[in-house]
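Today's session is about reading a structure prediction critically. Students often jump straight to the picture, but the first step is always the sequence itself: look for stretches that repeat, for charged clusters, for runs of hydrophobic residues. Only then move on to the predicted structure, which in these notes is written as discrete structure tokens rather than atom positions. Here is the chain we will use throughout the hour.
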Amino acid sequence: MPAKSMITVAFLSVLLTTGCEFLPNSDKSSKQNTNKQSEKIVDKTPQKTQNPQQACDNGDMAGCFELGYSYEYGVDGKSDKQKAAKLYQKACDGKYMKACYYLGYLYIKGSGVKQDKQKAVQLFTKACSGGDMFGCLNLAHMFAKGHGTKQDNQKAKELYKKACDGGTKAGCKFYKILNEQGAK
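Below is the predicted structure for this chain, in token form.
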């Protein structure tokens, strides 16, 4: 079996066995790290009396992210992926890195925006460079699969290590796989 096929099979096997997805749902400590890292960049913190809309209107990028999240996953049972994408973009532009990562995920799915995996790579790169480890993890996935960018196991391995060092368990698992397979 060619090396590229072995890596793909191993990658998919780990995805299936670990339940790993592009969205972080299983790594609570990494979520906390990601939130802390993203919050460092935000200039203003929302007032306890402000709702996300008020916070966003007042320039709080964490509030814009929260509002975008609520639109993505449903406000009063209704979701609006286009509004979510716009709010994530605003927060991302305001240097709230977690929003860049979530917006990248919408671009992968083509949810609320036109599907564009190259744009997702750009957003994951921005998130990763800004300290969001799930941005690094997903950027590594993109390089490992060759989605939106040229397939590059060496770059994927570097990014999985960065994500692992940043506290994401999935990053450690994928780093170990590529290491065992001899990816340089």
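Discussion point for the tutorial: The longest helix spans residues 3-18.
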